[in-house]
Amino acid sequence: MNYVNEYRKKLVSADEAVKVVNSGDWIDYGSMCGQVVMLDEALARRKEELKDVKIWTLLTLRRPRVMDVDPEEESFVWHSWHLSAMDRKIASERAVYYSPIRYSELPRYVREHIEPLAVAMLQVAPMDKHGYFNFGPQNSHTRAVCERARIVIVEVNNQLPRCLGGYEESIHISEVDYIVEGNNPPLPQLPDAASSEVDKKAAELIIEEMKDECCVQLGIGGMPNAVGKMIAESDLKDLGCHTEMLVDAYVHMYEAGRLTGRKKNIDPGKMVYDFAVGSQRLYDFIDNNPLCASYPVNYTNRPSIAALNDNLITINNAIEVDLYGQVCAESVGTRIISGTGGQLDFVLAAYESRGGKSFVCLPSCSEREGKLKSKIVPTLKPGAIVTDPRSVAHYIVTEYGKFAMKGMSVWQRAEGLINLAHPQLRDELIQAAQAQGIWRRSNKIS
């Protein structure tokens, strides 16, 4: 069937398309590289006509125009499932409302729990000969958003890579109400995170725990990136990829011959991912590449599915860890930094995997004005969010070592975690542990 005529009938300008938005509506703006650009600019031009339009998004990578034109926050209200650096910048100027999630559950939240969406607008790759628009490198919960919305508007960007599935990676023209041909902006770039000496030391400790045929999940940040680069330089063989976020480190591992996926229990030979954010090199790599399989997040992150891969190794970051083993990876006190995202999903999945291990990494301390401040703390800051409960977290890693917490009593945890702290800060932590009744005098701290 030729879909050209249907395409022409639905093709409108961005200004025409956003006329369907009304005051009080809940709308979705797309996520990550799929967040709309021309439709955002067109909606911003309607600022004086609209009130209380509530916008959903996830991991904003471009500054939205609607935020610039509405400093009073009367017309547009920003909601995020997970904050990016750009979202944090916006949050320093105006309200950004975060919704707590387990990322693996997000498609269900959208289908069953959130307010119905009046409009979904998202960037897509050009329509193929079968009438499908590919969602590009952000499968996530996109299909659920389109199903939940009364009106679907796609903004075509020919810079968007066509990401093969998996499933739920595209939408058919028959399900689309309006098409806008965008100005084809390049995708936002997230270059390789720089790895510090601290990151490299922690990465070495994790590499020691890996073996041939492991399946690897990397989170975002310098430490996971350091692990990826170190893997590429190692002699490990036949590694697999089952991850939430695909980053440049996986390209390094593949091109170095370390990552084949041949031994994976599920999706053998495939690099399974939910979304991809990185450099143009990464976007070029995933474009139309049958090696890569894009899945919705309720597949990639569901612990019962990810755990089907034996020897699942998951590597994520934290902001602080207390002496009981509670991990905060998303806030500084009550100030939201990112979100739960998929960290809890993969901490759970790794331990359920046969031979699997999860690693939560952080530097032992930070330094400000010449003063060291420990990231291993007696208790989390008031208001800090527990991302991984003490009953769930497995390995904690700093540049000073690694500690496996499963089966450990509170005093054993205190001892093990204090050993990961900066040596200059350990006595203070011991005093805190004594005051909390979780210290034994027989402990020997090296």
Give a nutshell description of this structure:
Coenzyme A-transferase that converts butyrate to butyryl-CoA. This protein is of the alpha/beta class and 446 residues long.
The number of domains is 2
Total number of beta strands: 26
The structural class is alpha/beta
Shape: globular
Largest β sheet strand count, sense and barrel closure: 8 strands, mixed
Looking across the biggest beta sheet, what order are the strands in?
15-13-11-10-16-21-25-26
* Uncertain ranges: none
Q: What's the name of the CATH homologous superfamily of the largest domain?
A: Acetyl-CoA hydrolase/transferase C-terminal domain
Q: Which range best describes the helical content: under 10%, 10-25%, 25-40%, 40-55%, 55-70% or over 70%?
A: 25-40%
Proper CATH architecture of the largest domain: 3-Layer(aba) Sandwich
Q: How many helices in DSSP terms?
A: 16
Query: Mean pLDDT, nearest integer?
Result: 95
CATH topology of the largest domain: Glutaconate Coenzyme A-transferase
Gyration radius, rounded: 23 Å
- Cα distance, first to last residue? 72 Å
CATH class of the largest domain: Alpha Beta
SSE topology:
Blueprint: H1 4-10, H2 14-17, E1 26-31, H3 38-44, E2 53-58, H4 65-68, E3 76-80, H5 85-91, E4 96-98, H6 106-113, E5 117-124, E6 132-134, H7 142-148, E7 149-156, E8 170-172, E9 178-181, H8 197-207, E10 215-218, H9 222-232, E11 240-242, E12 245-246, H10 248-255, E13 271-273, E14 275-276, H11 280-286, E15 292-294, H12 297-300, H13 303-306, E16 312-317, E17 320-322, E18 327-328, E19 331-332, E20 335-336, H14 343-352, E21 357-361, E22 365-368, E23 371-374, E24 376-377, E25 395-398, E26 401-404, H15 410-418, H16 426-435
Parallel strand pairs: 1-2, 1-5, 2-3, 3-4, 5-7, 7-9, 10-11, 10-16, 11-13, 12-14, 13-15, 16-21, 17-24, 21-25
Antiparallel strand pairs: 6-8, 17-18, 19-20, 22-23, 25-26
Helix pairs in contact: 6-7, 8-9, 9-10, 15-16
